[in-house]
């Protein structure tokens, strides 16, 4: 029976005044923890909603959750949904959870279960709001934590076994004596969570419980500490969880990490290798409860499109071969919860394809052809990733091997004749979007861009509002270096000359400007010229100088 027909049947029974069995009464397949975790792949996070720390679930800008939203997510191919919940602002002085709020969480969970999801709920931002004070306020924090789980476990005692409980999100502790104390505190919380949930009986007696590492990261020490907890608890129905947001310089585009280079790739590969060696090989299932790139919290364009696609392609492959269930972090920036569509269909296409297979990529998704010079053939490295390169297409037209392009090993050469045809029209910017086709997976888009070296102009402004007038001439900004005359680093993150994209600086292509932020100038020496080097994706670099005098800024 289709889910639509099933919903109509339920509505009909309700209209007739007949009762409908809820999730707890539904017949559920008996699965081992490993089988259940496999059935949860892939997963999605209902982020910035019930975990919002304001008055209600809309306080961080997302719409109120509807059953239709959950059905829409299910239709995208997701099998599990993580529902982060922040409880603290809904607790009274005696730690009682507001009944209306608890009922709302139950309503959302029931909808998700009815849609066929596995559902994971947790204690979320409480981790940094009050749980982190446990080193200096141990007894009060533990009592409050226990009160939350006592009430939540009782509320969901008879829920479907597809409901999974996660002890705490990204556990962290302030003012501790170091990792040894941190590990001990987290083990105490996890053990208390385990005891409370199991002690309520019913479905909770065998319910799958998820335990995180410290900070929910996959450093070896964190994994070893969690392994010791699993051994101590000796419960077969436990699952480990970590999060992954990539190699930090790449994840936020700072310190020259604007490419998904060998260092960023090694960080990703090493993470999954440690998960395999430390947990999976020992029979401990793993849920990667959040993944993405940290720069997405500001803007999904913080990392260049092709570089982010390469990250998600390799991430999906490593998760699949490692048998790790992944849950995409989405705080509203990926799936438009009002329109019911993906904001970046190309990105979701790469993510969803990686659940099943690999896709070919290339060194870049941008190929720059200068307008001020004769057009010549250009070569780009293709990364088949275990697939086979087949052909190149322009729209619905398959290009000709030989006259239009040649392939030698992993080198794809686009001929001067082809590039001349594609860029013969005037102006700058993308002149054509080619697709590189492989034997499986999604195609790789390669934009042919007509450009000239960008031009920057003099300007004046203030530390609160300063922008460099820029004729981008079809080029795109990759990163910014800032140094003083003596070669020392200027601006924020002074351990590197490369500044953070979208935080210290940001291009505004429509306005023809590059903005330097108040945060940048807050860490620039007064009266000392700063030499800027703007690095563009074509490979061009353009220098500029700014001087801050009090609140005034001049640039030349």
Automatic annotation (TrEMBL):
<feature type="signal peptide">
    <location>
        <begin position="1"/>
        <end position="26"/>
    </location>
</feature>
<dbReference type="InterPro" id="IPR050386">
    <property type="entry name" value="Glycosyl_hydrolase_5"/>
</dbReference>
<keyword id="KW-0326">Glycosidase</keyword>
<dbReference type="InterPro" id="IPR017853">
    <property type="entry name" value="GH"/>
</dbReference>
<keyword id="KW-0732">Signal</keyword>
<dbReference type="InterPro" id="IPR016282">
    <property type="entry name" value="Glyco_hydro_5_endoGlcnase_B"/>
</dbReference>
<dbReference type="InterPro" id="IPR013783">
    <property type="entry name" value="Ig-like_fold"/>
</dbReference>
<protein>
    <submittedName>
        <fullName>Aryl-phospho-beta-D-glucosidase BglC (GH1 family)</fullName>
    </submittedName>
</protein>
<feature type="domain" description="Glycoside hydrolase family 5">
    <location>
        <begin position="57"/>
        <end position="333"/>
    </location>
</feature>
<dbReference type="InterPro" id="IPR014756">
    <property type="entry name" value="Ig_E-set"/>
</dbReference>
<dbReference type="InterPro" id="IPR040946">
    <property type="entry name" value="CBM46"/>
</dbReference>
<dbReference type="Pfam" id="PF00150">
    <property type="entry name" value="Cellulase"/>
</dbReference>
<dbReference type="GO" id="GO:0005576">
    <property type="term" value="C:extracellular region"/>
</dbReference>
<keyword id="KW-0624">Polysaccharide degradation</keyword>
<dbReference type="InterPro" id="IPR005102">
    <property type="entry name" value="Carbo-bd_X2"/>
</dbReference>
<dbReference type="GO" id="GO:0009986">
    <property type="term" value="C:cell surface"/>
</dbReference>
<keyword id="KW-0136">Cellulose degradation</keyword>
<dbReference type="GO" id="GO:0030245">
    <property type="term" value="P:cellulose catabolic process"/>
</dbReference>
<feature type="domain" description="Endoglucanase B carbohydrate binding">
    <location>
        <begin position="452"/>
        <end position="555"/>
    </location>
</feature>
<dbReference type="InterPro" id="IPR001547">
    <property type="entry name" value="Glyco_hydro_5"/>
</dbReference>
<keyword id="KW-0119">Carbohydrate metabolism</keyword>
<comment type="similarity">
    <text>Belongs to the glycosyl hydrolase 5 (cellulase A) family.</text>
</comment>
<keyword id="KW-0378">Hydrolase</keyword>
<dbReference type="Pfam" id="PF03442">
    <property type="entry name" value="CBM_X2"/>
</dbReference>
<dbReference type="GO" id="GO:0008422">
    <property type="term" value="F:beta-glucosidase activity"/>
</dbReference>
<dbReference type="Pfam" id="PF18448">
    <property type="entry name" value="CBM46"/>
</dbReference>
<feature type="domain" description="Carbohydrate binding X2">
    <location>
        <begin position="371"/>
        <end position="448"/>
    </location>
</feature>
């Amino acid at each position: 029976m289709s889910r639509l027909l099933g919903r109509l049947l339920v509505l009909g029974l309700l209209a007739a005044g007949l009762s409908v069995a809820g999730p707890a009464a539904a017949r559920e397949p008996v699965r081992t923890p490993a089988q259940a975790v496999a059935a949860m792949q892939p997963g999605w996070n209902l982020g910035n909603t019930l975990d919002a720390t304001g008055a209600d679930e809309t306080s961080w800008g997302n719409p109120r959750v509807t059953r239709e939203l959950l059905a829409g997510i299910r239709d995208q191919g997701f099998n599990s949904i993580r529902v982060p919940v922040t409880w603290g602002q809904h607790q009274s002085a005696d730690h009682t959870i507001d009944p209306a709020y608890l009922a709302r969480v139950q309503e959302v969970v029931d909808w998700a279960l009815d849609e066929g999801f596995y559902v994971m709920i947790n204690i979320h931002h409480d981790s940094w709001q009050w749980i982190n004070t446990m080193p200096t306020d141990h007894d009060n924090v533990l009592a409050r934590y226990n009160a939350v789980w006592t009430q939540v476990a009782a509320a969901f005692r008879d829920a479907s076994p597809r409901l999974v409980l996660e002890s705490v999100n990204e556990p962290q502790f302030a003012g501790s004596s170091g990792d040894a104390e941190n590990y001990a505190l987290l083990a105490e919380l996890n053990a208390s969570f385990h005891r409370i949930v199991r002690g309520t009986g019913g479905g909770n007696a065998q319910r799958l419980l998820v335990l995180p590492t410290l900070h929910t990261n996959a450093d070896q020490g964190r994994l070893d500490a969690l392994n010791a907890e699993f051994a101590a608890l000796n419960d077969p129905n436990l699952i480990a969880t970590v999060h992954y947001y990539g190699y930090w310089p790449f994840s936020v585009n700072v310190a020259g990490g604007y490419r998904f280079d060998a260092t960023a790739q090694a960080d990703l590969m090493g993470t999954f290798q440690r998960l395999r060696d430390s947990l999976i090989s020992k029979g401990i299932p793993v849920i990667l409860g959040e993944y993405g790139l940290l720069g997405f919290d500001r803007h999904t364009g913080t990392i260049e499109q092709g570089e982010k696609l390469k990250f998600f392609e390799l991430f999906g492959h490593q998760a699949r071969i490692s048998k790790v269930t992944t849950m995409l972090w989405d705080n509203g920036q990926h799936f438009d919860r009002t329109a019911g569509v993906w904001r970046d269909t190309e990105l979701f296409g790469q993510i969803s394809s990686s659940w099943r297979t690999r896709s070919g990529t290339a060194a870049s998704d941008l190929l720059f052809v200068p307008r001020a010079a004769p057009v010549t053939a250009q070569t780009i490295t293709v990364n088949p990733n275990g697939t086979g390169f087949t052909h190149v297409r322009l729209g619905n037209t398959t290009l000709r091997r030989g006259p239009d392009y040649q392939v030698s090993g992993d080198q794809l050469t686009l001929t001067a004749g082809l590039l001349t045809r594609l860029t013969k029209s005037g102006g700058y910017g993308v002149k054509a979007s080619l697709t590189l086709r492989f034997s499986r997976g999604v195609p790789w888009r390669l934009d042919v861009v007509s450009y000239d070296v960008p031009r920057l102009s003099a300007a004046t402004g203030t530390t609160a509002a300063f922008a460099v007038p820029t004729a981008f001439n079809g080029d795109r900004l990759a990163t910014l270096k800032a140094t003083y005359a003596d070669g020392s680093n200027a601006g924020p993150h002074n351990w590197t000359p490369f500044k953070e994209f979208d935080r210290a600086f940001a291009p505004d292509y429509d306005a023809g400007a590059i903005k330097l932020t108040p945060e940048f100038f807050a860490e620039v020496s007064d009266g000392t010229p700063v030499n800027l080097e703007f690095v563009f994706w074509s490979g061009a670099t353009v220098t500029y100088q700014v001087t801050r005098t009090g609140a005034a800024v001049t640039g030349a």
